[in-house]
Amino acid sequence: MSDPRYVPRDFLVYPGEFGRLPSLQWRRVEEDWSLERRAQREASITQHQISYGVRALYMQKPRSTKLTDLATELQVEYHRLQKMLRGVVVMQMVDVARLRLLVGVDQGCWSERGGFTHFSWGDCGCHGRCTSPNTPEE
User: Fold this and answer.
1) What's the rounded Cα separation, in Å, for the pair 63 and 10?
2) Where are the domains of the chain?
3) Is the separation of the CB atoms in 54 and 110 below 8 Å?
4) How many whole angstroms separate alpha carbon 17 and alpha carbon 45?
5) For residues 121 and 40, what is the distance between their CA atoms, to the nearest angstrom?
6) How many CB atoms lie within 10 A of CB 133?
7) Which of 30, 51, 89, 98 sees the fewest Cβ atoms within 10 Å?
8) Which distant-in-sequence residues (6+ apart) come within 8 Å of 39 by Cβ?
9) From the centroid of its chain, how far is CA 58?
10) Where are the alpha helices (DSSP H) in the chain?
11) What are phi and psi for residue 6, nearest 5 degrees?
12) Is the sign of the CA dihedral 88, 92, 94, 97 positive or negative?
């Protein structure tokens, strides 16, 4: 795989927190940033929200649930999944689609848990585990 155009976690003040905490301190948008750079920041926020949701909901299922199990179910290499959830590599739309196909409506819950507005995929069935949306500071 070629060098990425950006590293999602680089938009964080503390990159090691990517995907691990519900609310993070994002780098401020600079006046001279191009539309592309701003879009990369927004995509990074979205990837973080999904990554946090995966960790918060999928990984808290049975204690025996491991990231290797999720990688197997998603048919993604373990190391790639690990890097995506840490924000080292860019999550592609096909990765989001794999998550959605694997968990069905629960991804709406993952997304809400990660900070999104709830998708219209139906009732997420989280039984109150979802939190209110988190809007990163600009």
Assistant:
1) 31
2) 8-114
3) yes
4) 12
5) 26
6) 14
7) 30
8) none
9) 12
10) 35-53, 67-74, 78-86, 93-103, 106-114
11) -155, 165
12) positive
3-state secondary structure of 12: strand
Rounded distance between C-alpha atoms, residue 136 and residue 138, angstroms: 6
Nearest CA to 88 out of 18, 2, 13 is that of 18
The string of pLDDT tens digits covering residues 78-118 is: 999 999 999 999 999 999 888 888 766 444 555 554 454 33
What burial class does residue 77 get, using C-beta atoms within 10 Å of its C-beta: 0-12 exposed, 13-18 middle, 19+ buried? exposed
For the beta carbon of residue 49, count every other beta carbon within 10 angstroms: 23
Convert the pLDDT of each residue in 34-84 to its tens digit: 999 999 999 999 999 999 988 877 766 665 568 888 899 899 999 999 999
